[in-house]
């Protein structure tokens, strides 16, 4: 049997696992964060820019993501395909992603390629070299990405593309983050260069080295490759704030492929790292934490009305610790066709109602905390598939640096969650999980059913 | 035709430093009194460990008689045992900070759990109870069967699923590997008795394997496993008789008609080899150069040059008895023929001409480096161990992989490509709108058109 939790509190257990974090800031403002761990001869290198799809220019929806693609198209000393080839041929893998508030670029490589990786990342921070043909090419690639992930699969883009326009009022939070095709078509090379000069500066970025790196050597290499890049101007101030919501919002979107009705329910969360936010995060885990979570248990296992029910704060794009601005706690439900949307919402409301009616039993809150801690460890160790060691550690170090100015917050990240009491959780649920603070989007199978489509197929001539 | 793009490598590019040696994970072997072999690797990066319980029977074991039974059996394990109710299982897992999943692949079924090392005995006890004493309670059984029925209907609306289902059917003919999912009628025919029978036959110490990776001490873990599996018995599992594979002559196209699709899923390939074949690593290298890496020829051609697709990739899939090679891309409808032309151009090129020296050295470095990355995480290491022991690879497979990859020559790549990339007899599957793509498809062979339910709509 495992040891009883009575002897050691969850908070005390957290102190058992600490990650070394060393930081320097170059003269041009580039922050460098190193977390050494020399057990395996591999290192994960990341460059994070403090720009996500919230801040892309109006009339240029999808631009931040298209721009991310352009960062792989060539820089002064590493032309098209050279960056990719040099990472792969050093024995490494690479990728990038665009999120609400950051865009990241990362490589995992055997550690003997560290010097080369920093040279590559510095080259594209200093001098993006792209042309009309690159832009045309990547616009086509991005359109296929959107067709693949949104138009040509059941529930594509749901709910990350469908909920924000219903739930939010500020364009920054409410537009199509993948991009309308006419906006992608309208993007010019001048837009690309302007975006690069505005946001892709050392002062708006953090460099991360995680794994097999000796810190003094890592800082020296960072200075050698990035030190000479001009600091650039600070990016213009941006307003991503969202006005308070006063009544429930609803919308309906047709589902063109799938056979089952779906819905997403989103509640605006309080500002991150406030006591109420920590409390809501625990409520979120009690509601959404897997099969033991109250929503899954009620809707999928016990009633059972739904086939799928999952969610979280920042779901499905990320987690608790990697965004910086207004955000929702989202639940996504796929349910059986014999139930109406209203019946499912009523069942959902029963679950929410119980959470608002009385405090969570202490034993349930304790379980949720143990699971939160366990999940956190796994995210730090892996987090982006099995071939990017310590992706999660790099990712959280980057976010704490860019959003809060202190990567060391990583080592105390769990504390605020583990201190939440049943009463605080109850108060947060009571205040936040109100209908006036939520939006509901239904994604309903379009009138044309699968069997009708099949019979159209029968009529297809040859 | 593709023009070859070899952008110059700048002389300013920093050289690689001397390599630090890769430390190979030391495996501890044990065998429980009940007969289950155990393979363990210690890794103390975080205070967690993962445990995989595997039986060497997957969907193929029942595909010809009771499709869907293997998957539903594994899904039901966690819904109740003689001693535990479903809710108690879910809450116990949360209390000890653990995740648990169960499922079936083609050749194996598993229960995979990961949890905090401080609760290892509890998690091991739970896993053992699930695999030894499942109750298959009537309520959860009806619920999961209904869910499986909805899932079967739903997956028929996914063009990517339809392409992969048709591809396996074409390649494997009457072999159980041809079947990747049951039909609605087959799901409706599944009874609780069928699950009990599948469990009784296939979940047996003689058919099982235990793999553990992470923060534990092996002797103590073996003690905990012994206690949990003490007294378990069961018979040998008979190997099903081998069903002959179809022979493929010439290129043929199977088109799954998905009206209104704005993109076409291309999936093309041929039967190839298993991991035990002497050419496996040579062919892995040829695949990396052809289309198995971001910097590969196919990705450079149809994505980075031509912008036809976001997700082009080729791969080798090795099941226990047979393997296959496949190329995949989702492309816009007006470039289906153009994409197939490039797929075959690159295929014929790698069969006809030796690869360049720099391509060879790039790909060797890529595969050997990525192999090191792949064992640097708990999940990656657990996956490598599963491959090693489930497919009965030589014990030194991990340790010798890099040196073997690094020793191959351009002649090795050419020979492997010629033997196993069967360009002339490639089978092509397209999932897309026949009205938009059928004429393009016909340029590559005779075309059979199917609907989403597998009904033949037309054939040349």
CATH level-4 homologous superfamily of the largest domain in chain B: Metalloenzyme, LuxS/M16 peptidase-like
Overall structural domain count of chain B: 2
- Low-confidence region ranges of chain A: 1-7, 448-462
Total DSSP helices of chain B: 16
Kindly, what is the distance between the CA atoms of the first and last residues of chain B, rounded to a whole number of angstroms? 28 Å
Q: What number of structural domains do the residues of chain A give?
A: 2
- Based on CA atoms alone, the radius of gyration of chain A comes out at 23 Å
Topology pattern of chain A, helix = H, strand = E: HEEEHHEEHHHHHHEHEEHHEEHHHHHEH
Q: Over all CA atoms, what is the radius of gyration of chain B?
A: 24 Å
Residue-averaged pLDDT of chain A: 93
**What name does the CATH topology of the largest domain in chain A carry?**
Cytochrome Bc1 Complex, Chain A, domain 1
Major sheet details of chain A: 6 strands, mixed
What is the number of helices of chain A? Answer: 18
Unreliable spans of chain B are: none
On the 0-100 scale, what is the average pLDDT of chain B? 96
Oligomer status: heterodimer
**Overall number of strands of chain A:** 11
Give a description of the structure:
The complex is a heterodimer of chains A (462) and B (460). Chain A is α+β, with helices and mostly antiparallel strands and 462 residues long. Chain A has 2 domains: 207 residues, Cytochrome Bc1 Complex, Chain A, domain 1; 192 residues, Metalloenzyme, LuxS/M16 peptidase-like (Cytochrome Bc1 Complex, Chain A, domain 1, 2-Layer Sandwich). Chain A contains 18 helices and 11 strands. In chain A, the strands form 2 sheets. Chain A has a 6-stranded mixed β-sheet, sandwiched between helices. In chain A, strand 1 and strand 2 form a beta hairpin. In chain A, helix 12 crosses helix 13. Chain B is α+β, with helices and mostly antiparallel strands. Chain B has 2 domains: 202 residues, Metalloenzyme, LuxS/M16 peptidase-like (Cytochrome Bc1 Complex, Chain A, domain 1); 208 residues, 2-Layer Sandwich (Cytochrome Bc1 Complex, Chain A, domain 1), CATH 3.30.830.10. Chain B contains 16 helices and 13 strands. In chain B, the strands form 2 sheets. Chain B has a 7-stranded mixed β-sheet, with helices on both faces. In chain B, helix 3 packs parallel to helix 8 and helix 10 runs antiparallel to helix 11. The radius of gyration of chain B is 24 Å and the shape is globular. The mean pLDDT of chain B is 96. Chains A and B meet through helix 3, strand 5, helix 4, helix 5 and helix 14 of A and helix 2, strand 5, helix 3, helix 4 and helix 10 of B.
